[in-house]
Design a protein that fits this description.
Layout: H1 3-21, H2 26-33, H3 37-44, H4 52-62, H5 67-70, E1 88-91, E2 97-104, E3 109-117, E4 122-125, E5 133-140, E6 142-147, E7 150-155, E8 159-163, E9 168-171, E10 178-186, E11 192-194, E12 197-199
Helix pairs in contact: 2-4
């Protein structure tokens, strides 16, 4: 299999394991995530390449950290991931990308995302599990961060923190490509160990 097929198979196995650990049907997950049953079947069988929005909806519905579905690394191992090697989880219409650069497991799960966003591109994120926080740091270009009805323009060197459990968005209305990092932190209060790994208490 190719690398993308390996990742798709891994994601499907993890989603199925967490769904069955909760004793949820495909219909239950479809209702909670907004992802169709047909799409869920394809994902669980490793036959789909789901978008970041789809996987975010599923992970939030299951109450698990995004990285617990997509990261292939061992949580306690010393890991090195070269630039661009992480799973490609979003592609914009004009060449923008989002990679999961790494994650930290344990009681508190944190994910590190590396984003490249072309001029005019936008990504809307649905709310993550309750208590989730995000840290955004801009490396180059200009980023408009939207949180609920508030938006702020961040330039290179700027950073911001906000609740990840509310609607938020990233967009590039500048004149050049934007490069930024996002740390997503899931609190221990929303995570517990279950038969298939971290599971939310929600």
């Amino acid at each position: 299999m190719t690398g993308n097929q390996d990742i798709a198979t891994l994601i499907g196995q993890r989603i199925r394991a967490r769904r069955t650990a909760r004793q949820w049907s495909l219909e239950e997950v479809a209702t909670r995530s907004g992802v169709s049953r047909r799409t869920l079947v394809a994902i669980e069988q490793g036959q789909a390449n789901p978008s970041i929005a789809v996987l975010s909806g599923i992970s939030d519905a299951l109450g698990v950290a995004f990285a617990s579905l997509v990261d292939a690394g061992e949580p306690d191992a010393f890991q090195v991931r070269r630039s661009g090697e992480g799973p490609l989880l979003w592609e914009g219409d004009d060449g923008g990308t989002a990679h999961l650069a790494g994650s930290l497991g344990g009681a508190n799960v944190s994910e590190l995302w590396e984003w490249r966003m072309a001029v005019g591109e936008t990504h809307h994120s649905t709310p993550h599990p309750p208590g989730t926080r995000e840290l955004v740091a801009v490396h180059s270009g200009q980023l408009t961060l939207g949180v609920n009805d508030t938006s702020v323009v961040l330039a290179a060197g700027d950073s911001a923190t906000h609740g990840g459990d509310i609607e938020h968005s990233y967009s590039n209305a500048g004149r050049s490509a934007a490069s930024f990092s996002v740390v997503v932190h899931y609190p221990a209060a929303t995570v517990m160990e279950g038969p298939a790994g971290p599971l939310s208490q929600a």
